[in-house]
Amino acid sequence: MTGVKSLFVPGPTNIPETVRRAMDVPMEDHRAPDLPEFILPLFVDLKKVFKTEAGKVFLFTASGTGGWEAALTNTLNPGDKVLASRFGQFSHLWIDMCERLGLDVQIVECEWGTGIPVETFGRILAEDTDNEIKAVLATQNETATGVQSDIAALRKAMDSAGHSAMLYVDGVSSIGSIDFRMDEWGVDIAVSGSQKGFMLPAGLCIMAASERAMIASEGRTMHRCYFDFRDMIATNAAGYFPYTPPMTLLRGLRAALDLLLDEGLENVFARHNFLAEGVRRAVAAWGLELCAKGPEWYSDTVTAIRVPEDKDANDVIKHAYNRYGLSLGAGLSVVAGKVFRIGHLGDLNELMLMSAISGAEMAMRDVGIDVVPGSGVAAAQEFYRKNSPKMALAAE
Questions:
Q1: For residues 87 and 244, what is the distance between their CA atoms, to the nearest angstrom?
Q2: How far apart are alpha carbons 213 and 54 in whole angstroms?
Q3: Of 312, 331, 352, 390, whose CB count within 10 A is highest?
Q4: CATH fold for domain 6-12+264-391
Q5: pLDDT for 35-69, tens place per residue?
Q6: Number of Cβ within a 10 Å radius of residue 320
């Protein structure tokens, strides 16, 4: 097939040309005397994205999963009790890791298509008068189902319960794309990854820890080595790393941060909401349903679309790729074969996203899903055409 394949999975995302060029450099000395002049400002600007002043930023050569492990092993002890809800594949995987690390996980099972059960969490915490629960785990954006949860509401419920548990947030598919306020929301650990809102290849775990989390990390007995905060702290302060860092990714990170901060974070969030709404309008015009059970759960970075019960979403995905060169996200675990996903985060605009909507529409029709030709495309077009001026916020 001629032309460029279209990537619309919810990560990895499209890489801006300026970021690609920034990474296309000769190998360099990661112990060079002048390296701190480049590295230290990265930590400063990453704190702006996490919206934290007091937090400590870490960069591990890993995926977001490595960040989960770093968060748990540095701040908790074996047998500690944590509270988590399972409502999608990634919230499930975080729970699985906790159990495999020897933590005592109190699990709240939720319907896939919903998100963090804030009221239930508040009740459980209020009843835990001995403060046995040491941490609350929250997935801000469940990529598998296209569900976005309200972290501010969760913090309010925790405060109302008067509980001392720390708050850990999986922001892998949200930070850098959806509003995240680490200090304001009292988040103790926030984990992200380079391949989503930061518009880079996979390979960097980007995370931040609060002062409280750093205090909690002192004297913890859970085994760790590569992900030990102490090794990072000892070398990061001088602008270096305790092991060989991925310099090309760090060069790309510099360019990506420049793009995000130049656009203005509030503009970035507004753009993602705007683009996501166009996809939702297309789905409605097709007469299909979202996996997310209601508007309060709609994600601004990925939309999971349910196919009719007698159809297989994998047929749509395979056909879109083989016939049109379009990569759509697959349904995972409980929703495998039931949904396909359109990722709309990172380096993206209306015309790019229109190609995904058009390709998905053609692929669905080709495999026998009865949608009116042009219906989704027209609905998205009209929304984007009439509402794009609302995106014109003044850059910070």
A1: 37
A2: 11
A3: 331
A4: Aspartate Aminotransferase, domain 1 (3.90.1150)
A5: 999 999 999 999 999 999 999 999 999 999 999 99
A6: 25
